[in-house]
Design a protein that fits this description.
Elements (H helix, E strand, L loop, with lengths): L1 H7 L5 E5 L15 E5 L3 H11 L6 E4 L13 E7 L8 H11 E12 L5 H17 L9 H7 L3 E8 L2 E7 L7
Parallel strand pairs: 1-2, 1-4, 2-3, 4-5
Antiparallel strand pairs: 5-7, 6-7
Length: 178
Amino acid sequence: MKWRKNLVGNLTGAVLEIGVGRGENLPYYAPSVQVWAIEPDPTRAAQAQQVAATCRPAITVDVTGAESLPYADHTFDHVVSSLVFCSVANPRVALAEIRRVLKPQGTLHMVEHIRPETQWLATLFRLLTPRWRQIAHNCHLDRPTLQLLQGAGATVTVRRRIFMFVRLEVTFPAIGGK
């Protein structure tokens, strides 16, 4: 899929992908990057590990959630989230963890669906979300991801928007003047 290649194909350095799922993005990373990935669901993580085994360079897949990342501070040049942030149990905690593991000049790259700006659509998504969460791995159609990012002091650049789907690049101010 072209959007996957556009999301990860030009990244360099050390990359963390949160919510790797079955590893759909993994073949699109450049061979020169170092990729770590996390997935909270052990079955899907095992599927991602199978895909990772066919990729170069080697990709590490860990079974964990975004709210408690097992990596040192300032480890990654980039963090990738594709259609994941709507599903994390505690998005504020996950965002704080992402910010912690990103290097000071690092970037969070996201493709997410977000709460629509149109009031009637936002209401519809709010009504659909309880049932949708049950069938789509806790996905919240009405999550206010843009507002959450902006509330955390992030600089958000919208690279592309199609209906409720957006491709974002997110940077954070330095923590503690670092």
